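Changelog-linked ticket: flavin mononucleotide example.
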Amino acid sequence: MSKTFFEAVKGRRSVYAISKESPISDEQIQKIVEEAVLHSPTSFNSQSSRAVVLLGENHDKLWDITAETLRKIVPTEQFEGTAQKLSSFKAGYGSVLFFEDQAVVKQLQENFALYADNFPIWANQSSGILQYVVWTAFAEQGVGASLQHYNPLIDDEVKSTFGIPAEWKLIAQMPFGGVVTPPGEKEFQPIEERVKVIK
Ligand SMILES: Cc1cc2nc3c(=O)[nH]c(=O)nc-3n(C[C@H](O)[C@H](O)[C@H](O)COP(=O)(O)O)c2cc1C
């Protein structure tokens, strides 16, 4: 077992208190996301995953869009909590948006009708793998990140604001930045209830 690999796996946590001080450069951030997109597996090697890195005012804009969208639907008395949560994401350095290209999914469904129902599921799973690789690679570089899901509420506004192709389906948002407060201890359920080895 590679020690360094599992150190990286264990080092990835949800970090909610993040800052605009990134421990790595924009070029390193771009490289991490590019390497993750290139080398994360996809079903049938379809390479359906897409990622958009938002930095600077574009990152801020994402969380302003999310706040404005939620303000319209969250009851007033609950909005204060929501707004605080969203400003903690905006306090970060950037966000990665994860998409799956539905044009690719549709083409696979046409080409391999037998698996038609599975392709959207596999596209989601592929995106999950990609999200995990980015998240873990960030953690290894001292970048704190969490995984958020304000889709599909924000999809239209995000697409029109950032010029995202219509066929790209938003799957997840990952705000990241400098670690302000490291995450606390995590509780684990007994491993023997979760893993069975059958000999
Ligand atoms: C598929 C998936 C969806 C998640 N969605 C959210 C989310 O919408 N918002 C959030 O704050 N955390 C989300 N999380 C983070 C989990 O709550 C978190 O990973 C879990 O509590 C374990 O904590 P850790 O990330 O520190 O190990 C998600 C995690 C996974 C794997």
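Closing comment: Example verified and attached. Residues 117 and 126 are 15 Å apart (CA to CA). The pocket of flavin mononucleotide is lined by residues 13-14, 146-149, 183, 186 (CB under 6 Å).
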